[in-house]
Protein backbone atom coordinates (compact mmCIF):
# COMPACT_ATOMS: atom_id res chain seq x y z
CA UNK A 1 0.00 0.00 0.00
CA UNK A 2 1.14 3.48 -0.85
CA UNK A 3 -0.33 6.98 -0.79
CA UNK A 4 -2.29 8.06 -3.85
CA UNK A 5 -0.53 11.31 -4.62
CA UNK A 6 -1.25 14.05 -7.15
CA UNK A 7 1.46 16.46 -8.25
CA UNK A 8 1.02 19.72 -10.19
CA UNK A 9 4.05 21.12 -11.97
CA UNK A 10 4.65 24.48 -13.63
CA UNK A 11 8.05 25.52 -14.93
CA UNK A 12 10.98 25.03 -12.59
CA UNK A 13 9.91 26.50 -9.28
CA UNK A 14 6.41 25.13 -8.79
CA UNK A 15 5.70 21.62 -7.58
CA UNK A 16 2.58 21.08 -5.45
CA UNK A 17 1.64 17.75 -3.88
CA UNK A 18 -1.67 16.50 -2.50
CA UNK A 19 -2.79 13.09 -1.28
CA UNK A 20 -6.28 11.79 -2.08
CA UNK A 21 -6.25 8.24 -0.72
CA UNK A 22 -4.19 5.09 -1.17
CA UNK A 23 -3.22 2.70 -3.96
CA UNK A 24 -3.39 -1.01 -3.10
CA UNK A 25 -1.21 -3.25 -5.26
CA UNK A 26 -2.69 -6.71 -5.67
CA UNK A 27 -2.03 -10.01 -7.36
CA UNK A 28 -5.29 -11.74 -8.12
CA UNK A 29 -8.26 -11.90 -10.46
CA UNK A 30 -9.73 -8.80 -12.12
CA UNK A 31 -11.90 -8.75 -15.24
CA UNK A 32 -11.79 -12.57 -15.19
CA UNK A 33 -8.02 -12.49 -15.63
CA UNK A 34 -5.22 -13.37 -13.20
CA UNK A 35 -2.81 -10.44 -13.03
CA UNK A 36 -1.08 -7.80 -10.91
CA UNK A 37 -2.98 -4.51 -10.65
CA UNK A 38 -3.56 -1.42 -8.50
CA UNK A 39 -6.83 -0.24 -6.93
CA UNK A 40 -7.41 3.27 -5.55
CA UNK A 41 -9.20 3.39 -2.18
CA UNK A 42 -10.19 6.24 0.11
CA UNK A 43 -8.67 7.18 3.45
CA UNK A 44 -11.91 6.17 5.19
CA UNK A 45 -11.76 2.71 3.62
CA UNK A 46 -8.18 2.27 4.87
CA UNK A 47 -9.05 3.54 8.37
CA UNK A 48 -11.85 0.99 8.56
CA UNK A 49 -10.05 -2.03 7.06
CA UNK A 50 -6.41 -1.38 8.02
CA UNK A 51 -5.06 -3.25 5.02
CA UNK A 52 -1.41 -4.28 4.78
CA UNK A 53 0.91 -6.62 2.92
CA UNK A 54 -0.30 -10.21 2.84
CA UNK A 55 -4.02 -9.57 3.38
CA UNK A 56 -6.46 -11.29 1.05
CA UNK A 57 -9.32 -9.03 0.01
CA UNK A 58 -12.24 -8.96 -2.41
CA UNK A 59 -14.50 -6.26 -3.75
CA UNK A 60 -15.66 -4.31 -6.77
CA UNK A 61 -14.22 -1.31 -8.59
CA UNK A 62 -14.54 0.69 -11.78
CA UNK A 63 -11.99 0.40 -14.56
CA UNK A 64 -10.18 3.72 -14.92
CA UNK A 65 -11.50 5.99 -17.65
CA UNK A 66 -8.49 8.22 -18.25
CA UNK A 67 -5.29 6.21 -18.53
CA UNK A 68 -3.05 9.31 -18.64
CA UNK A 69 -4.50 10.82 -15.45
CA UNK A 70 -4.66 7.90 -13.01
CA UNK A 71 -1.90 5.46 -12.10
CA UNK A 72 -4.22 2.93 -10.43
CA UNK A 73 -5.94 0.47 -12.76
CA UNK A 74 -9.24 0.63 -10.88
CA UNK A 75 -10.98 3.23 -8.73
CA UNK A 76 -14.24 3.78 -6.79
CA UNK A 77 -13.65 0.52 -4.95
CA UNK A 78 -16.71 -0.82 -3.17
CA UNK A 79 -17.97 -3.80 -1.20
CA UNK A 80 -14.43 -4.32 0.09
CA UNK A 81 -13.99 -7.29 2.37
CA UNK A 82 -10.90 -8.61 4.12
CA UNK A 83 -11.06 -12.38 3.62
CA UNK A 84 -7.80 -13.25 5.37
CA UNK A 85 -5.58 -11.04 7.53
CA UNK A 86 -1.83 -11.49 7.42
CA UNK A 87 0.38 -11.23 10.50
CA UNK A 88 2.24 -7.93 10.81
CA UNK A 89 5.66 -7.60 12.37
CA UNK A 90 5.79 -5.56 15.56
CA UNK A 91 8.58 -3.16 14.71
CA UNK A 92 10.22 -1.92 11.56
CA UNK A 93 13.88 -1.07 11.89
CA UNK A 94 15.06 -0.86 8.28
CA UNK A 95 13.90 0.10 4.82
CA UNK A 96 11.81 -0.71 2.94
CA UNK A 97 9.20 0.01 5.62
CA UNK A 98 6.28 -2.37 5.07
CA UNK A 99 4.07 -1.87 8.13
CA UNK A 100 0.70 -0.20 8.35
CA UNK A 101 0.43 3.03 6.39
CA UNK A 102 -0.15 6.26 8.34
CA UNK A 103 -2.96 8.75 7.75
CA UNK A 104 -2.75 11.08 4.78
CA UNK A 105 -2.10 14.04 7.08
CA UNK A 106 1.22 12.40 8.01
CA UNK A 107 2.26 12.18 4.35
CA UNK A 108 1.20 15.77 3.74
CA UNK A 109 3.20 16.98 6.77
CA UNK A 110 6.32 15.00 5.85
CA UNK A 111 6.51 16.11 2.23
CA UNK A 112 8.38 14.05 -0.34
CA UNK A 113 11.46 13.91 -2.54
CA UNK A 114 11.87 12.70 -6.09
CA UNK A 115 12.73 8.99 -6.19
CA UNK A 116 14.59 7.30 -9.03
CA UNK A 117 12.13 5.18 -11.04
CA UNK A 118 14.40 2.12 -11.18
CA UNK A 119 15.00 2.27 -7.45
CA UNK A 120 11.24 2.58 -6.87
CA UNK A 121 10.57 -0.58 -8.91
CA UNK A 122 13.50 -2.68 -7.68
CA UNK A 123 13.95 -1.73 -4.01
CA UNK A 124 11.17 0.56 -2.77
CA UNK A 125 7.99 -0.87 -4.29
CA UNK A 126 6.84 -2.50 -1.02
CA UNK A 127 7.67 0.54 1.10
CA UNK A 128 4.81 2.55 2.62
CA UNK A 129 6.78 5.79 2.08
CA UNK A 130 7.16 5.33 -1.70
CA UNK A 131 4.57 6.30 -4.27
CA UNK A 132 3.92 6.62 -7.97
CA UNK A 133 2.20 9.99 -8.36
CA UNK A 134 -0.23 11.27 -10.95
CA UNK A 135 1.52 14.37 -12.39
CA UNK A 136 -0.16 17.24 -14.27
CA UNK A 137 2.19 19.68 -16.00
CA UNK A 138 0.87 23.15 -16.83
CA UNK A 139 2.17 23.11 -20.42
CA UNK A 140 0.29 26.14 -21.78
CA UNK A 141 -1.09 28.13 -18.83
CA UNK A 142 -4.87 27.68 -18.57
CA UNK A 143 -5.05 26.08 -22.03
CA UNK A 144 -3.25 22.74 -22.03
CA UNK A 145 -1.79 20.30 -19.53
CA UNK A 146 0.47 17.29 -20.08
CA UNK A 147 0.35 14.21 -17.88
CA UNK A 148 2.78 11.58 -16.70
CA UNK A 149 3.62 9.43 -13.65
CA UNK A 150 6.59 10.08 -11.35
CA UNK A 151 7.96 8.22 -8.34
CA UNK A 152 8.45 10.00 -5.00
CA UNK A 153 9.60 9.14 -1.46
CA UNK A 154 8.07 10.34 1.84
CA UNK A 155 10.57 8.32 3.88
CA UNK A 156 13.45 9.31 6.16
CA UNK A 157 16.12 11.36 4.43
CA UNK A 158 18.86 9.01 5.65
CA UNK A 159 17.33 5.91 4.02
CA UNK A 160 20.15 3.79 2.55
CA UNK A 161 18.05 2.73 -0.44
CA UNK A 162 17.16 6.26 -1.56
CA UNK A 163 18.36 7.67 -4.89
CA UNK A 164 16.96 10.82 -6.47
CA UNK A 165 17.75 9.85 -10.03
CA UNK A 166 18.19 12.22 -12.98
CA UNK A 167 16.75 15.76 -12.97
CA UNK A 168 13.22 15.77 -14.35
CA UNK A 169 12.31 17.92 -17.35
CA UNK A 170 9.28 20.21 -17.03
CA UNK A 171 8.21 21.28 -20.54
CA UNK A 172 6.43 24.49 -21.43
CA UNK A 173 4.98 25.47 -24.81
CA UNK A 174 7.37 27.45 -26.99
CA UNK A 175 10.27 27.20 -24.53
CA UNK A 176 13.03 24.78 -23.64
CA UNK A 177 12.18 22.49 -20.70
CA UNK A 178 13.12 23.49 -17.17
CA UNK A 179 14.81 20.79 -15.07
CA UNK A 180 13.83 19.92 -11.51
CA UNK A 181 17.28 19.15 -10.09
CA UNK A 182 16.15 18.42 -6.53
CA UNK A 183 16.32 21.71 -4.65
CA UNK A 184 12.53 21.68 -4.42
CA UNK A 185 12.89 18.46 -2.41
CA UNK A 186 14.53 20.50 0.36
CA UNK A 187 11.61 22.93 0.35
CA UNK A 188 9.03 20.11 0.40
CA UNK A 189 10.72 18.31 3.33
CA UNK A 190 12.07 21.28 5.36
CA UNK A 191 9.93 20.40 8.43
CA UNK A 192 11.91 17.27 9.26
CA UNK A 193 15.45 16.12 9.97
CA UNK A 194 17.53 13.39 8.31
CA UNK A 195 16.17 10.54 10.45
CA UNK A 196 12.55 11.72 10.58
The number of strands is 10
Rg from Cα: 17 Å
User: Which shape, going by the Cα principal axes?
Assistant: globular
- How would a textbook summarize the main sheet? 6 strands, mixed
Number of helices: 4
First-last Cα distance: 20 Å
Structural class: mainly beta
Helix content: 10-25%
Multimerization status: single chain
Low-confidence stretches: none
SSE succession: EEEHEEHEHEEEEH
Query: What is the averaged pLDDT score?
Result: 94
**Percent of residues in beta strands?**
35-45%
Please give a quick description of this structure:
The protein is 14% helix and 45% strand. It is mostly beta strands.
Q: What report would you give on this structure?
A:
The chain is mainly β and 196 residues long. Helix content is 14%, strand content 45%. It has helices at 43-49, 104-110, 117-124, 183-188; strands at 2-10, 14-30, 33-41, 56-63, 74-84, 113-114, 130-140, 144-153, 168-172, 175-180. The chain has a six-stranded mixed β-sheet. It has a two-stranded antiparallel ribbon with strand order 4-5. The chain has a two-stranded antiparallel ribbon with strand order 9-10. The longest helix is centred in the middle third of the chain and has 8 residues, at 117-124. It is globular. The model has no long low-confidence stretch (mean pLDDT 94).
